[in-house]
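**User:** My hope is that you can spare some time for a protein that puzzles me. I have put the entry right below:
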Amino acid sequence: MKRFLSNVRRAGNNESLGEFGKMKLHVCSSSNPTRQLETIDDLPEDATVLDLKKRFHMKKRKYYPSRQRFTKFINKSETEKEEEEEEEKKTKKNVFKGEALVPDGKKLSEFGIGYGDVVLFKDLGPQISYQAVFFWEYFGPLMVYLPFYFYRERIYGRFFGFSPKECAKPFVRAQTLALWFHSAHYAKRIFETFFVHSFSRATMPIFNLIRNCGYYWTFAGLMSYFINHPRYTSPGDRQVTIGFVLSALFQLGNFRCHVIQKRLRSSGGSSSSSSSSSETKYVIPSGFLFDYVTCANYCCEIYQWLGFNIATQTAFGYLFLMAGMSQMFPWAVQKHKRLKKLFDGTNGRKKFKRRFIVLPPFF
């Protein structure tokens, strides 16, 4: 009916009629749904979200597909509009909420979008791939750490004024092992980036590259400066051994957890319908430490750095650990709550068993 009325209007204005089998959509701004940005009238009726992004890119060359985000426009009642306007006045931000058109491979018709409908566009800004961000944020610490060990006389003597005699002191066992453990950790991270991890999204804002690299590179430099310092005082041999053994075990455990997660994602939970949600494709992690800890990968990451800091004992090492925990804890709580809500033991779904969230036996 929408196509028929549109063709009647076009005929009255001596315009070419719309093709049958094609879909016409109006693209408006997500910040101001009344402002139309573009009309796309050459989409096939079975078009996917990616098809829409490609067509929009053809008309607006600046906005390549990974930079685009589309939302289904939802007509609201007057009461809902008034509530949104009140919230906007309080927060001074646009609070429009609609159904995001994800993933890219899904058909527009599956969202209930048809001929003549409105979709809302948001510019996500310049994007960069997840793999590129992960590579540079992990490659940096690997390179930043090494000079303080291999060029100690030049760095501490020339730039920080220490005497040649102090700089020529042989490295103690804790310093050498710290070099190997720190390098192995980030080498493992880079390997996992390309061969283990799979990402639900292809890209992220390019600003994240600057922020993440600044975080990892700065801490790696500060930790290396104090661990490899000519006046560094090592803990006792027993403490060094215990710390690095603990770090090694949990580093291997972290790798095992990531491999388990990779297998879960690749299977999509199809092996056990009761332990997966068909609507959200979330899966209850199981096996190894996941049977006891919701976010076992974070658990291993934290205890690995705890072991490293027990062995090296620097203030910036512990500060790095605390900063990492402050990020991982909220993510772990959010994931734990989501799994408890999805897997509540009803409608044939598996019951999410009671377990630690991230840090046994404390949390």
